[in-house]
Amino acid sequence: MSDRKYPVDVIYLAACSRDARLTRICVASIRYFYPDVPIKILAGDILQWGLARELKKYWNIDVADLPRGDYGWGLVKIEPLFGPPGQRFMVCDVDTVFTGRVLDRRAESDAPFWVDNEQLSDADFMRLYYDWNALAKMDPDVQSARKAFNVGQWFGTAGLVRREDFDDLVIWTLPRQLRMPDVFMGGDQGVMNYVVLKKEAFEGLRIDRVELMRWPGNGMDDLGVEAVTSGKAPALVIHWAGMKAIFLHNMVGGRLLQFYEDYYYTKLPLGRMRRILALWRHAWIHWLFNTIRPFRLRLRMMFGCLQQKRPAVLVKQSIGA
User: Fold this and answer.
1) Rounded CA gap, 90 and 9, in Å?
2) Which tens digit of pLDDT belongs to each residue from 108-154?
3) Contacts of 78 by beta carbon, 8 Å cutoff, 6+ apart
4) What is the pTM of this model?
5) Per-position b or e across 127-162, b if 16+ CB within 10 A of its CB
6) Could you tell me which CATH number the domain at 10-318 has?
7) Residue 312 contacts by C-beta under 8 Å, 6 or more apart in sequence?
8) Which of 141, 153, 251, 302 lies most in the core, judged by the most C-beta atoms within 10 Å?
9) What are phi and psi of 133, to 5 degrees?
10) How many CB atoms lie within 10 A of CB 294?
């Protein structure tokens, strides 16, 4: 635990093997405003070779002490809930950047959870979080997802939500698996909100909701490089959910991403050369992934469905009991 210099003890960044470029950019955006806040990487699978050593040596960032393996889509992000009781943390996907001193805003609330105040239609909530109508047949206490929050950036406190609260929803093998992937959407997003919203409704868990995230599809006019570097931009987390591209110039707000990437490499010796090599590696990894992905999906459909069928039946009998 830290000495409470900041309103969080640690920031966790969820990354995977294909996210090295965005991880560097995300790290640079946080360090631009907070040079010494503790940051740890949540490795959703095996990180790109050399990344952990580079982050440790030049940016004082560690990898969280978790078993190595495949955590599935985003499920590594619920692990901080089970950390040292009372630890106050922030969790971010790495396709995010800070536009200001976001942690300073966290100090405005003493609620154990501090999240983005998502505003969506009922149809979009069910598409992005979970189908509460289907769940009501198994759990009459299910809460609608109308107050759900995007799990790409959120603040929480360890020890208030237990691993056992997810036992009917998640298979704790590596790779992690959802027991009902047809009901819960977005990897960790659906199950996280289902559990936490029930805690809020029935156990008094306090959650403060604020404008924390900006999705680039909703406009970036006030979040350009000049506004961020001059301190005039609102302190938000920009999240490129569903809007990633291999090359930054193809992304909305690409100039800001480029600015933070430039800043990252100023801290590394031979930064320009390292950046060129990293870009080639990034493009190659994504090309390779997109080439073999259809074959992997076909194998997963053939063999994975059999593994999930029986647990799904069991959970439908027990959820909400």
Assistant:
1) 8
2) 999 999 999 998 899 999 999 999 999 999 999 999 999 999 999 99
3) 166, 170, 188, 191, 192
4) 0.89
5) ebbbbbeebeebbeebbbbebbbbbbbbbbbbebbe
6) 3.90.550.10
7) 179, 180
8) 153
9) -70, -45
10) 9
